[in-house]
Write a structure and sequence with these properties.
By secondary structure, the chain is an all-alpha fold. It has 13 helices and no strands. The chain is globular, with a radius of gyration of 23 Å.
């Protein structure tokens, strides 16, 4: 290819690349900006101070934080086992863990609801914790959706840590547990923090599984996404749009925090 033809191809490729980026940015900003016609400072202030929205914010933060804590507590050792251990059927286990990631959340919620209709599920509800149409169901639904994501993110982090660091620690007298605590986890802490932040943001925005299992009851199981659903159900567009902006603000804050932490790299 001649130099002139190569130069034209390069410019065309650059224009297509930049144009594609500009299109998606304009498209997303256009959607967000279009919602501003439904709100003004006074409506935003009144919505933010309403008991219903404050309840939704507090419930979303509480349930998402609890779901993430459980997911990380289980996900970190599970991810480490997948990363460092070879065993028969590992590929099958790995595939099963991807199911919650690719399945629609509403399908996961339906599966949970069906499970709690079985004899075992009924026994759990009667003798342990009631999940169906209760706030505990929100935590379980969020955990079900984000646990596989947490494991996948942490497994990738452990895969990128050279096992020789752990082997060196063991030659210095550390057992496998202390090698994990004092060597592997510190090396993976940036990835761990980013995983926590990303999973928390996903849990806050979770809707499908939550509404199927916990229902949509005002001032009881009303997280922010469920609040939007209920507000549109009664044609309260102004309050719904304001709640959407709250979720956008939370999402943007979380993503900026994740990028700031992720940009530091391991230290």
């Amino acid at each position: 290819m001649s130099g002139k033809a190569s130069s034209i191809t390069d410019r065309t490729f650059a224009l297509v690349s930049i144009g594609s980026l500009a299109f998606i940015i304009i498209f997303l900003l256009g959607i967000i900006i279009s919602m501003t016609s439904y709100v003004n400072p006074s409506t935003i202030a009144s919505t933010l101070t309403s008991d219903e929205v404050l309840f939704s914010i507090n419930l979303s933060i509480f349930t998402a934080t609890l779901a993430v804590a459980i997911s990380i507590a289980i996900g970190v050792p599970a991810a480490y086992a997948l990363s460092r251990t070879n065993f028969p059927g590992k590929n099958i286990i790995d595939t099963i863990l991807d199911i919650p990631i690719v399945m629609p959340p509403i399908s996961l919620g339906a599966a949970l609801l069906i499970f709690f209709s079985t004899p075992l599920g009924i026994a759990i509800r009667q003798n342990a914790i009631e999940f169906v149409f209760e706030p505990a169901g929100l935590v379980l639904a969020q955990f079900t959706v984000i646990s596989a994501l947490a494991i996948r993110l942490m497994k990738n982090a452990f895969d990128n840590i050279n096992p020789r660091y752990e082997q060196a620690a063991r030659t210095l007298g550390y057992n496998r547990f202390y090698s994990f605590i004092y060597v592997t986890l510190p090396l993976a802490r940036t990835s761990l923090l980013c995983s926590i932040i990303l999973c928390w943001a996903r849990a806050v925005g979770e809707f499908g599984a939550s509404v199927m299992l916990a229902g949509a009851t005002r001032m009881k199981t009303e997280t922010l996404p469920i609040a939007i659903f209920l507000q549109f159900g009664v044609a309260d567009v102004t309050k719904a749009v304001t709640t959407v902006f709250i979720l956008i603000a939370i999402s943007v804050t979380v993503l900026l925090l994740m990028r700031k932490i992720g940009g530091r790299g391991p230290v």
